[in-house]
Each structure stands twice: as structure tokens, then as C-alpha cells.
Amino acid sequence: MTNKLQKKWRLKPQADPIQVKRMISIIGEKFSPLAEVLVQRNLNTIEDINNWIPGISIRTVDPMQMADMSVATKRLQLAKKNKETIFIFGDYDVDGTTAVSTMSIALIKGGWKVVTYIPDRYKEGYGLSKKGIDSAVDSGASLLITLDCGIKAIDLVNYAKRKNIDVIITDHHTPGEILPDAIAVINPKRSDCKFPHKELSGCGVGYMLCRAAYQVELLEIDELDSLMDLVAISIGADMVPITGLNRFIVREGLRLMNNNPRPSISALLGKKKEGLVSLEDVVFAIGPKINAAGRMSHGHFAVDLLTTPNPELLEKLGKEIENYNLERRSTEEIISSAAKELALTYKKDIALVLFGSNWHKGVLGIVAQRMVELFHKPTIVLTESDGIISGSARSVPGLNIYDAIESSSNHILQFGGHHAAAGLTLSPNNLYTFRKEFNISVNKHWQEDKRSPEILIDAAAKPEDLNEDLCLLLDKLAPFGMGNKSPVWGLYKVTMEKTSYMSSNKHLRTLLTNPISRKQIPAIGFGWGLFRPKNKLVNVAVILEWNYFRGEQRLQARIIDIQNIM
After folding, report:
1. pLDDT band per the 50, 70, 90 thresholds, residue 272
2. Rounded CA gap, 140 and 228, in Å?
3. 326: which residues sit within 8 A by CB, 6+ positions away?
4. 3-state secondary structure labels for all residues of 498-556
5. Which of 144, 196, 411, 497 is the most buried (most CB within 10 A)?
6. Which residues are CB-neighbours of 34 under 8 A, at least 6 positions away?
7. pLDDT-derived band at 2, boundaries 50, 70, 90
8. Quick check: is 213 in a domain?
9. Shared domain check, 309 and 183
10. Where residue 273 falls among pLDDT bands split at 50, 70, 90?
């Protein structure tokens, strides 16, 4: 018995054998499985690898290539000259709060006067809000900059203009057919934007505006390098590709976190972990705590934490955010259980639209992702507040959920997002019709051959192939994430020996053994505590990594999937 969804294994298409053979001659026969992976990823020579590893240096990138950037920087010059107050408005998630923190620190350091604002998730919802614009008026601001939002805020930008506030939009979500009538709309996904790096985080787009503003003002642009740790957190948490420019920023950000950690990041990490801070720590330790502030209380807690230099305040805010994170976990478990029961009543639906009238709005995105993992169906989780239904959507491999929602958007009030995740609101009267139309839309947009859950295996390997030398080479290819996932190794026909179970049978430890050579590798399977092999031999998909324990660094394989051999 297992608590995991059964998946089909698919081995990646074999790389060019001539190129693989050439790569083996370069890195050595014992690394032949890695040679296959490198060539699959179009890294055919040592020069390719050496050029790819550092990413694209930010010093070779011209932010002025972005559409409207020259207009935006001129307006920022004017604001500085006239000592205007700039109102920085950002979303309440990790990307938004790191963006507001980054821009606030950068502009204040550069001599601008700023006020920061994060909308209340429950009272204002996602994106630019009327209340936020009114707050900008009350603060005496004459320029409002949106971060990680605003690309579809056509009516609200017009409202701000009527209030005599200029607006600069910075966003990375998919634009609609009509752009807001702001003085500048900075978004690399604009069809007329010539900036080559299209997949930035929202924080990354705002950071480019800061660098451009420093460039125009003839300020020392290198002073902004110290903010790449915050941009790196946004990239990891928002699941944008870790390639090219993003890869450079993440590598620099992680270097800062390890060599000269920002006190606020140390506060979020809590007790110092063993080993280096990794992108995985960003995604699973730092990101959820920042998110918890906006989910359970208010996102400005995160901004206060990330921008304050006061040690006592840091400690206080760090503890408060940790408490919100614990509350978030508990709430998420309760709602996930209810959502799972509800999902079982929609077994015939190709997509899940789940509604609970009193579910906590702050955890709906997490719950949606849990349902995707359980049922392998695109999922929208909704709740009601003040007569409006709103919630979050999460996608599955092979489906652009933004397109699927857009095709059924006649039944919703508003929506926004990208290929993997979205947010939306609708009238309670339209819930039934929307559920029906969304299922029709998903059926149209989701190819049938993509609908079975699968594990993509990078290369077949034996336990003896997964050694410390290989792991050291993989360290050079890190950080792994979107666009550069950690290689998944397929261990075929191995035995599980000396297996033990932990945390009330939630997890397992075992030795994956080649039955012929008797070579072994220690493995851990999180969430695999209910698995029991039906026969002696099993197939196991793993990721190779280091385990740090009591000051020692040891090799281990992290189990992604196990197949009984029938």
C-alpha cells in the first residue's frame, strides 16, 4: 500500500550518441549517465558547460531595452528632483513583498522618498486596489509604482489618474489585449518589448527599473548588487526558470546568503541549518514564512522584516511570522482534508473546481497544489467573502491554466496569472456554470497524452553510478529549479534493504542495492512510509543529494517514485 499517486515512467529521448560518446571522453567513463544528461540539455562541450554555469551576467544586460523604461526613469528623475513621495504598491505574496522591499531599499539609498504598501488579502484582494490608491492620495504621493501586479488594472489606473497620481506599472504576468493607460507599463512579456529575458519574477522586473533609474541618475549601480538575495528569493518562490539572467541572480543571491547573510534572512531561517543555504531552503523554508504573513495576517509584516535593520524588531517580527507559518500549516491541513473529500465527489470531472463557503482565503493556493498532487487534475479552490467568490488555481504539466481560464472567462469577474497558477473572482450565481465551462475548456486545452501522471527519467543508472564524485559534479550545475531541474535517475531492478520507517510510517529509509554487484546507496523517501514492495525487485526514481547531519556531509538518494515490478 502507498499514499502516492501511481505514475507512469517516461525515459527522456536518447541524446545524440556521438555527442554523448564525446562528452564521456571529456568527463570520464564513470560519469557516463551524467554525459547523457548534459547532452540532453544541449551542453555538448566543456565550453558550453563553462558558459552556462554562471548564467548571463547582469552587467551585460541593458534594462533600458525594456519597453517604456526610458519614460519610467525620466519620471523617477523628476520625482527625485521635486522631492515627490513615491508610493510603492506590491502584491502580498513572496514575489510582491520582496519586490516592495527591494525597490524601497534601492530608492531610499538613491535619494528618493518612498512609502510602501501591501494590500490586505481579505479586504482588498489581489492586485492594485482602490483603497491602495486612496492611501497614496492620503500619503501625499504623486507617483505610484506597482510591483508584481497591475498589468490588467485598466479601470484602477484611470481612477488614479483622476486623483492626479501618475502610475508606473511593473509586472511579469501575461498582459491582456489592452494595456492600462499608465505613464509606463514595464513588462518583458509585452509583445513590443525587445528585452530578451522574458521570464523574470515580478521582483526581477522591479529590480531592473531600479538599476535603470540608477543608471540614468549616474548613481553607483553596483550598490544594488547586494539586493540580489531578495531577488533570488522571489525567483525561487515564484517558480520562474533558473536559466540565463535568473540563474546569475540566484547564484549571486545564494552567495550573499551564505557569505554575508542579511539579518532578516537569518531570522527567517531560524536556527542555522547544517550545510550551505540552498535554493531548496529558499523555496521550502524562507518562502513559506514570508508568504505566511500575507496568508494569515498582513503581507507588510514581511516587508517590515526584510527592510528593517533593528535587531530587536527583527527578532520580534521573525517570531511573529514563524507563528503565522505554524498557523498556516494547521489551517492548510484542515482545509486540504475537506477539499479532498469534496474532490472525491467530482471523480468524473477532468478539472476540479472546489468551493467551501468558510475556507480560509490565505491557504487556497496551497490547498489547490495539494489537490493537483493527489489527483493530477488542474484545480481551482474557492471561498466566499462579502458576496464574492474568489480563489486560486494551480495547473498540471502540459496545461496552460491561464489560457484555460481565459476560455471560460465569460463567467468570472476578473482573473490574472500565468501558465502554472492564477487567481480569479466570480459571482456565486455563476459557480455552477463556471465549473462546467472550465471543465470543457480544460478538455480542449489539455492534450490527452499529457493527462496521465508521469515521472520523467533523465537517465538510467546503477547504485554504484550515484557516487560522491558525481554529486560533486552536480553541485557545479546547481542551483536546480524550473528550466534546470535536478536530474532524476532511474534505478531499475534494485532491492530495498535494511528498510526502516520514521515519523509514524510517514517516511522511509533504505539501502537501494544492485542485486548483482551488491553496491548500495542510502536513500530516503519522504511520504513513502506506507510503501511495501510486492516483489524483491523494484524500480526507484531518485535525485542525488547531500545529507547534512551532526556536522557530517553524507551522500543520499532522495526517492521521487517507486514502482513495483509485476
Report:
1. low
2. 30
3. none
4. EEEEECCCCEEEEEEECCCCCCEEEEEECCCCCCCCCCCEEEEEEEEEEEEECCEEEEE
5. 144
6. 27, 459, 470, 473, 474, 487
7. low
8. yes
9. yes
10. low
| Sheet of 166-170, strands arranged across | 113-117, 85-90, 141-147, 166-170, 184-186
Structural contact between residues 493 and 537, judged by C-beta atoms closer than 8 angstroms: yes
pLDDT band at 505 (very low <50, low <70, confident <90, very high): confident
Three cell numbers, residue 347: 471523480
Place of cell 541572480: 249
Distance CA 402, CA 416 (A): 7
Q: Tell me, what's the pLDDT at 1?
A: 44
- Amino acid of residue 205: V
Strand, coil or helix: what is 497? strand
Neighbours of 438 (CB within 10 A): 27
Q: Read off the C-alpha cell for 427.
A: 459571482
pLDDT digits (tens, 9 = 90+) for 512-534: 999 999 999 999 999 999 999 98
Q: Find all residues with CB under 8 Å of 380, minimum gap 6, and list them.
A: 351, 352, 353, 354, 368, 391, 392, 393, 424, 438
pTM of the model: 0.89
Residue 269's pLDDT is 83
Grid cell, residue 9, equals 515512467
CB atoms within 10 A of CB 58: 20
Q: What is the mean pLDDT of residues 462-487?
A: 92
- 113 and 253 in a single domain? The answer is yes
Domain containing 24 — which CATH number?
2.40.50.460
Rounded distance, CA 145 to CA 127, Å? 12
Residue 335 lies in a domain: no
Q: What is the extent of the structural domain holding 430?
A: 349-450
**Higher pLDDT among residues 298 and 196, named by residue:** 196
Concatenated DSSP letters of 56-82 = --GGG--GGGSTTHHHHHHHHHHHHHT
The one-letter amino acid at 28: G
Q: Which CATH number does the domain housing residue 277 bear?
A: 3.90.1640.30
Pairing verdict, β 352-355 and 184-186? unpaired
- Whose CA is closest to 167, among 177, 157, 152? 157
